[in-house]
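Backbone-to-sequence.
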């Protein structure tokens, strides 16, 4: 009877161990996703690397130029009448000045590249990314982003100003004799007030640049600080009820109202996620393992399964990510007439680069767990079970009778 009960208890324990080992596999995969969240998606280096790999900084002058050109012809009230008021489509144009509307995309790209070279764009963008994530890890009351504008200001001085103006008027028709006379100030007109509506010779343009430089210095450049400060409105409270409103259910959970504190709490919980599959494997050892050999097998098989499933799943997701992101962006932003097609093309590549890093990290971690599991299984092959003691029979255990010898 006792033997039968022991066998039933042993089968039940192994069944529980098998269920726990099965639960350890999906929880381990989920733990990889949560554990890598901070190391990848909250790491500024991930975004800096994604921008560099997408060659964003080299393309930004072209993208900005195309977007400026696109915005000159964009009329939201005509293309999206439902977004305007009942007065009907507005014929007033917005966007860049009229002078920019006569420039081609290549000329706008040259002007933007002159004022905002790729090296400057990369340095400032990476600085802004670092400042943003630094703010998330700090207790600063206000998010302020600093941009160095000294190099941009130098582009509007001296020979750089002349080169800028020559690029600006490159697409304009040559000046007539009357326009040149007005620009030279021979008829008493101020050339700076007339503006550039034609393309003057280089000597006239240089003279205009020399006259315009003091005005630009006093009027524009003095208003631009060397270190530009951009205050960014960032929410400081969550779950707060307005006047006369009842607090929501999330507020009743006594969660932090500062979004940064809430983010730290969530990330801290994510970092504890591996404790769940680890605890399940300890229970597996408690219910299922009866020897070192069994322990290595009970732990090795789930880890190998995590490695195979995780590596395949994350690698497959990584391979299909580009198509998924492109489809998502086309669905969400494809109908937006304000964004140019070039912007809609580069945005998925940047986002895919960020997610590629995230998925590749999880695939490597899953592969490492699979290798550890394989090592445990190999080690179990070299451990032999201890042989059971040989039971002695009653005949052997009793001493043999000594025969009597007659005299």
């Amino acid at each position: 009877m006792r033997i039968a009960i022991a066998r039933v208890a042993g089968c039940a324990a192994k069944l529980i161990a098998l269920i726990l080992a099965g639960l350890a596999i999906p929880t381990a995969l989920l733990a990889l996703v949560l554990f890598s969240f901070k190391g990848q998606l909250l790491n500024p280096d991930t975004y800096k690397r994604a921008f560099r790999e997408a060659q964003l900084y080299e393309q930004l002058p072209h993208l900005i130029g195309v977007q400026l050109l696109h915005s000159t012809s964009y009329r939201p009230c005509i293309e999206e009448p439902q977004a305007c008021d009942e007065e009907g489509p507005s014929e007033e144009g917005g966007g860049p000045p009229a002078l920019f509307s006569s420039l081609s995309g290549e000329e706008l790209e040259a002007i933007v590249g002159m004022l905002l070279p790729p090296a400057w764009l990369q340095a400032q963008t990476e600085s802004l990314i670092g400042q943003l994530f630094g703010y998330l890890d700090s207790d600063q009351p206000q998010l302020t982003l600093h941009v160095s504008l000294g190099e941009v200001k130098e582009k509007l001085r001296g020979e750089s100003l002349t080169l800028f103006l020559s690029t600006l008027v490159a697409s304009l028709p040559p000046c007539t004799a009357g326009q040149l006379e007005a620009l030279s100030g021979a008829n008493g007109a101020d050339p700076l007030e007339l503006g550039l509506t034609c393309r003057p010779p280089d000597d006239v343009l240089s003279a205009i640049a020399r006259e315009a430089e003091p005005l630009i210095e006093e009027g524009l450049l003095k208003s631009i600080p060397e270190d530009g400060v951009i205050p960014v409105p960032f929410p400081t409270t969550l779950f707060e009820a307005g006047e006369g409103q009842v607090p929501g259910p999330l507020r009743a959970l006594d969660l932090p109202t500062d979004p940064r504190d809430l983010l730290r709490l969530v990330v801290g919980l994510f970092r504890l996620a591996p404790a769940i599959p680890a605890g399940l494997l300890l229970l597996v050892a408690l219910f299922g393992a009866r020897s070192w050999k069994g322990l290595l097998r009970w732990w090795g098989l789930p880890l190998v399964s995590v490695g195979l499933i995780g590596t395949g799943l994350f690698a497959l997701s990584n391979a299909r990510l580009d198509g998924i992101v492109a489809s998502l962006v086309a669905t969400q932003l494809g109908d937006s007439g304000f964004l140019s097609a070039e912007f809609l093309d580069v945005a998925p590549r940047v986002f895919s680069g960020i997610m590629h890093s995230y998925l590749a990290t999880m695939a490597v971690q899953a592969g490492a767990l699979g290798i550890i599991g394989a090592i445990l299984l190999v080690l179990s092959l070299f451990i032999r079970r201890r042989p059971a003691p040989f039971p002695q029979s009653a005949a052997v255990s009793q001493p043999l009778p000594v025969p009597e010898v007659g005299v």
